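WARN retry 2 of 3 for item q-0093 after timeout on previous attempt; input resubmitted unchanged.
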Amino acid sequence: MTKKLRVLLIGALTTMIGCSVGYGGIIKLRSGTVDFLKGETRVNVEYSYDGMTVGKFAREQDYLDKKVADYNAKEPGKGDRWRQNWVNDRALRFQPKFEELINHHLAARKTSLQFGSFKDAKYTLILRTTFTEPGWNVTIAARPAYMSAEATFVETQNRANPLAVFTITKSPGQGVMGVEYDTGSRVAESYAKAGKELGIFIAKKLK
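OK item q-0093 returned
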């Protein structure tokens, strides 16, 4: 067996193991309740990526520096374009996916609550991404993307005392079966999963 084949097979095994754990129980209510949402129809959503770690890198900036340098070495300017997409994907792909799925699963359970950019809403959800695993895909082996985050509910006009705090742990994105080669698409699916699970959790509590 060649060294390259061994690496690919190990990668595939790692992916299968990763897919077999972490798909359940990604949402945990750490403090508070969501009772205050009863009777509400809209919740404002804000996003933060401050202090986020990426893969094996303790600082997002270190990850970006390496990826940009690697891409630019292969093709001048490619790394700079990649870095811009890395940032743009947040507003263009990740955040819309989160809101689409949380709203879909709330509506599917006959809940009138909607999440989005509602600056005048009484309550705000702050979704702070704490960790991102971008994943990878090399045709016959892949590693799924996933993200971890902290979801904090506050009064929009009085944010000193959180009303409820959730942890979202290793919300999975596209895996091997997704055959997804684009980093942004893989990570976007992890936000979709997080929105789905949080929507289901909240809908059950508001019944």
